Amino acid sequence: MESYVFAFIIPLVAVILDSLFGDPQSMPHPVRYIGQGLDIFEASARRVKLNMRVAGWTAVLLFSVGAWSIAEYLIAIPYLGVLIALYLGYAGLALGCLVKDARRVASLLDTGDLPGARQALSMLVSRDTSALDPNDVRRTLAETVSENLNDGFVAPMFYLAIFGPGGLWAYKVVSTMDSMWGYRTDRYKDLGYAAAKTDDVLAFIPARITAWILLLVGKKHGLAYEEAKANFAADAETMESPNAGWPMAATAWLFGGQMGGKAIYFGEEKEKPILGPIGKMWDKHMIRSLITTCKSSGHMAAWIFIGTFGWLQIIF
């Protein structure tokens, strides 16, 4: 019975809770503690003048193994462990929060509140949103929703379904580390190197699964499936990241809206590769449809993972 609980019930209920309630912000969240721990580690490494590349690899190993070990210890507690496992699964998924926040940005923009939309969007992206026009806001929102469908839901769900809460939180540690340190700035280019490379490896398969599920859901919804299938992989390969471009390019071609182009990061202008049909703008209907499609795609991925890996765990 316990095998069925951990293979099927916990990931299934975690997905349902995420869909209904989003991120459990009012409760103790592991990501906050991970972030605080990484800040302390960085400060200590810099204080003792540790080689930053070495520090980065040490952090990846220490925090990922630590997260896995702590999670496995907690879920092994009799009776209470099942509830802890459920919470760790739920807290590690972020599709509900992504959908809620994206809809808020879209609603603010649709009602003419451009400053409010920029501010709300700034909570989802690392780029400067202060000078974005409505077209840029929608394009940026489309980019972050499609990319974070993988980073915030499909990839952690993949590891939850295969390895349980311990595997999910080992992945989340690396993902959090990459989001904090994975920048090519003077401060982080060495410290964040290990996190960026490890995240590239861990997200490689989930990113491609995300893209293909987006295509299948898009085909069902009558979107430009054939055009997307013919073009998205070539566009994805133009990105610096080996993974981010896959769900983004699939989405851009499905909906016929351009992604990429000029963006401001930390005061510096960056020209990102163009994904999708050049010059095609995102409108409010495309954005609403995109959010719904991403939500459906995430849930499809979850059911596939739970069904496939759940039975494999029971059998083996």
Low-confidence stretches: none
Principal-axis shape? globular
> How many individual helices?
12
What distance lies between the first and last C-alpha atoms, to the nearest angstrom? Answer: 15 Å
Number of strands: 2
Question: Can you summarize the main beta sheet?
Answer: 2 strands, antiparallel
What value does the average pLDDT take? Answer: 94
User: Per DSSP, what share of the residues sits in E-state strands of 2 or more residues?
Assistant: under 5%
The helix/strand series, from N terminus to C terminus, equals HHHHHHHHHHHEEH
Q: What is the strand arrangement across the widest sheet?
A: 1-2
- Domain module count: 1
Helical fraction? over 70%
Q: What does this protein structure show overall?
A:
- A two-stranded antiparallel ribbon has the order 1-2.
- The longest helix has 48 residues, at 134-181.
- Strand 1 and strand 2 form a beta hairpin.
- Helices cover 72% and strands 5% of the residues.
- By secondary structure, it is mainly α.
- It starts with a helix and ends with a helix.
- It has one domain.
- It has helices spanning 2-21, 30-47, 52-75, 80-91, 95-110, 114-122, 134-181, 193-202, 204-220, 225-236, 245-255, 284-315, and strands at residues 259-265, 268-275.
- It has twelve helices and two strands; from the N terminus they run αααααααααααββα.
Task: Kindly summarize this structure in a few lines.
The chain is mainly alpha-helical.
Question: In terms of topology, how is this protein built?
Answer:
Blueprint: H1 2-21, H2 30-47, H3 52-75, H4 80-91, H5 95-110, H6 114-122, H7 134-181, H8 193-202, H9 204-220, H10 225-236, H11 245-255, E1 259-265, E2 268-275, H12 284-315
Antiparallel strand pairs: 1-2
Helix pairs in contact: 1-4, 1-7, 1-12, 2-3, 2-7, 3-7, 3-8, 4-7, 5-6, 5-7, 5-12, 6-7, 7-8, 7-9, 7-11, 7-12, 9-10, 9-11, 9-12, 10-11
